[in-house]
Amino acid sequence: MTVSELLLAYEPQIRLGFFLGVLGVMLFSEAAVPRRPRSQPRWVRWLNNLGLVVLNTVLLRLLFPAAAVGAALYAESQGWGLFNQWALPGVLVLVLSVVILDLIVYLQHVMFHAVPALWRLHRVHHADLDFDTTTGLRFHPVEIVLSMVLKLGAVVALGASPAGVLVFEVLLNATALFNHGNLRLPTGVDRVLRWIVVTPDMHRVHHSLEGDETNSNFGFNLPWWDRLLGTYRDQPRAGHEGMTIGIHSVRDPRAAEWLDGMLIGIPFRGGTPEYPINQRFQEKTDGTA
Known about the structure:
Layout: H1 3-32, H2 42-63, H3 67-78, H4 90-114, H5 116-126, H6 141-158, H7 162-179, H8 187-193, H9 200-204, H10 211-214, H11 224-229, H12 239-242, H13 253-257, H14 259-268, H15 276-286
Helix pairs in contact: 1-7, 2-6, 3-6, 3-7, 4-5, 4-6, 4-7, 5-14
């Protein structure tokens, strides 16, 4: 079996193994050293958030059986994509694949905050009234499918390394669980670590009820894009213990934390009055700002 064949054959097992391992470590760590007291019943949130990720996983496997690694392998076999046109060292292609795909995910995240129709889907993630590692799994199925389509296009256009794509996906899943953790890190550790990876304190700001804080710290894995592109915010105004998690339009726990609300109620009912980027644009065009 070639390395490419091994990657394709064992990609689900590799991803699942890392996912379960990191999830277990995070759930234990949150219980041991929590950053904030819980505001919602744990088991209701966990059951519904984890139920959503199971639904999304089944949907992706049905629609995209080979997933992003399969797309990278096919592009490689056909000589498609930027990196497949150059004789670059394999390690360099792997690293560039991970870094560029992470930038694309950052830009995609900003886009889901900037387009009202996409925000309807993405606000399912933000409507969680509490913040822990299961929040990092909570995305509407349509957003997951759109994200995968964008990712497949980026992988083929880049000619990304199949190994790089697998490393990227494992890292993205692991860091999403980590940076959504209700985990207290020592201040000095957090200060250093957030130059290398998005930390829980850094990303928690993004889940603030306050609009300008919601529209900051878009990175999931690498923290550099927020600093370079002007979307970085160091701390929430109210502090991590005092800040309110969620969005203005969804404050009812029954609507926010149950699967029917996540699938239908939050994305498809009501307008987008809580959406700050769109509001600022409208204010400028209306001459009210």
